[in-house]
UniProtKB/TrEMBL annotation:
Keyword Transmembrane helix carried by entry: no
Species in which this protein is naturally found: Bemisia tabaci
Lineage: Eukaryota, Metazoa, Ecdysozoa, Arthropoda, Hexapoda
Class of enzymatic activity (EC top level): hydrolase
Documented EC number(s): 3.5.4.4
Assigned protein family: Belongs to the metallo-dependent hydrolases superfamily. Adenosine and AMP deaminases family.
Descriptive protein name: adenosine deaminase
UniProt cross-references to InterPro entries, sorted A to Z: A_deaminase_dom, Ado/ade_deaminase, Metal_Hydrolase
Amino acid sequence: MDRISLKEDVFPGPKVELHVHLNGCFRHETLFELAKKKNRPISGCAALADLKMRCIVREPKNLSHFLDAYELGYHYFAGDLEAIERLAYEFCEDSKHSNVIYSEVRYSPHRLVGVGFREKYDLQGLLDVTSQVIKGLKRGERDFGVRCKSILSGHSWLPELLSDLIKVCQNFRDDIVGIDLVSQEYSAEAPAVPLLVSLYGEAKRLGFGTTIHAGEASGPTAIQRAVEIYGTQRVGHGYHVVKDKTIYEKCLRDQVHFECCPWSSFLTGAVPFDIDTHPIKQFAMDGANFSINSDDTTITGYTLDGDYSLAHSWGLTQEQMKQTNLNAAKAAFLPEVEKKELIKQLMEAYKQS
Ligand SMILES: [Zn+2]
């Protein structure tokens, strides 16, 4: 797909975004500045343009290649409370440029603390970094009018860390709305992890929303497992569900919400560039419950508007793009009364456009 040929601003209306990683959305400029300030130059990146070249994935390869820039970012943001607050604040400002009115942004407090995975995590450290993100999001909300809630991301290969996250969630009940698993993809069709099943159940009982990355690198059974065994309410990506008629039809019937990310679906290599019908287009044709999200703007090199442009190039209509936002508002992890208010706000704006 040619980066230049897409029409810009195809959907200027208000948007709801549900799948976006804070650590995949840092500004290249900010990282460049931090590296200078810390006197820790980024190898091979003497100029900002070099850093952009390094972070932005232009050709699809695989998910781990796509995640290289994450590691680079953690190297500079992790453990730096001031930089973490700034990261969250700038996220709000950038969301405003795409006319996002409500966002659920996800991050891993364990990675933001910045010690190795095998070291012992101190709960206070997790609370400290989370409170810095929330502080930045609140400052951003005040200045830019973008309402943001947090989703905490855990890793399926370290299930015990999820119990820390549930404790962190309980400490910030007004600001954290759900949990996520980012690495289910790596264990593709592996059996469910009993500890994760029980912790997902606990998070739900405590009133938190649940989502899981599945069906991006992994196949339809990973989606089935996420929904039926972990009991997740939403699925991150989910493209490969279309490969299994039975699982797909069940997801359609149950109105499982898929958090789709057009550009990253290509750049991670999850969906081939030359596919006749992208699964997101298929979702739109079949009336599936899905939303359009940016995932990682640092890495795709596009804002959320770019994802709408790509979806539009596949033939998604204005009405379908409006519908994806209404879907997102309905699937948001907000209390019912706040969800209704958000839906009303979107409908009023869309009626006038
Ligand atoms: Zn993601």
